[in-house]
Amino acid sequence: MLLEILKAILFGIVEGITEWLPISSTGHMILLDQVVKLNVSADFYKMFQVVIQLGAIMAVVILFWNKLWPFYMKKTGDSKKAAWKDGALAMWIKIIIACIPAAIVGLIFDDKIDELFYHPIPVAIALIVVGIVFIVVENAKKGSKPAIRSIGEITYKAAIIIGLFQLIAAVFPGTSRSGATIIGALIIGVSRSVAAEFTFFLAVPVMFGASLLKIAKYAAVGMAMTGTEWIVLIVGCLVAFFVSVFVIKFLMGYIKKHDFKVFGVYRIILGIAVIALSFVLF
Fold first, then answer.
1. Which residues pair with 69 in a beta bridge?
2. Quick one: which of 60, 187, 188, 180 has its CA closest to 127?
């Protein structure tokens, strides 16, 4: 039991770091799974690697609660009632719009995508390609001033474009959801900090939806978690939450002074490593 808890802690650490940095949590989870095997059923692990993201997403909810929660208490006479914050409704509509493409594809083709692309070589190729794109986009944007400097300035058209980039990540594991949406945002002139922040916000409905889908499918086949599996899931989520808090704060501070090219270089190196190791481990 203790060994499985230690493994769950390690998975939580990796999830918490890689979910928010644009370096692909999927690629890292595949590598980690080959080195550190959880003593759980195959069906549970398929569910675990998605649901562990709930811990990471709760970090976003806590850190950005004031921006995400759309209501405030408005005083009217001697009473108070809930009212929409300025711009909150528009922001959430944009978030929903951006999530629709990935949600539709995920619901229809989830199992097929896993079957076709959730393998080391496709993931490695996605790591390398997106890494190169990061470097190219950052070089192209060097010296230019972003046209969009706040969440409120993101238009509905921009939200749709960012959503289409998120769709790419939904189809090709290893692309990195955060990486794809950040690239899409940078291309259309969104500042780095706003691109990262909007990516965090998009993660809330996407990850909750993906987790609920996996849990529903797990329950639909009549599977029941063992005591060890419950502990692994809870520990993994908790660790992912606490690590995510620090990683999100780090990233928001980092991109105020630096670009994303270092993550592009890291992705390329990791992709090459995955291809090399695939001939040994997989």
1. none
2. 180
Mean pLDDT for 194-222 is 86
- As a whole number, mean pLDDT of residues 219-233 equals 84
The pLDDT, as a whole number, for residue 199 is 94
Residue 210, CA distances (Å) to 26, 32, 61, 270, 279 in order? 14, 21, 16, 25, 31
Give the domain ranges of the chain. Answer: 2-66+85-281
Q: Is 143 left (phi over 0), alpha (psi -120 to 50) or beta?
A: left
Please tell me the predicted confidence (pLDDT) of residue 253.
Answer: 94
Q: Give the pair of three-digit tokens for residue 204.
A: 């809330």
**Helices vs. strands in the chain: H and E counts, helices first:** 12, 2
In Å, how far from its chain's centre is CA 168? 13
Most confident of 111-125, 205-219, 251-265: 251-265
153: which DSSP letter?
G
Confidence of residue 282 (pLDDT cuts 50, 70, 90): low
Say what the pTM is.
0.88
> Measured between alpha carbons, how far is 53 from 238 in angstroms, rounded to an integer?
10
Q: Which of 17, 14, 27, 273 is nearest to 173 (CA)?
A: 27
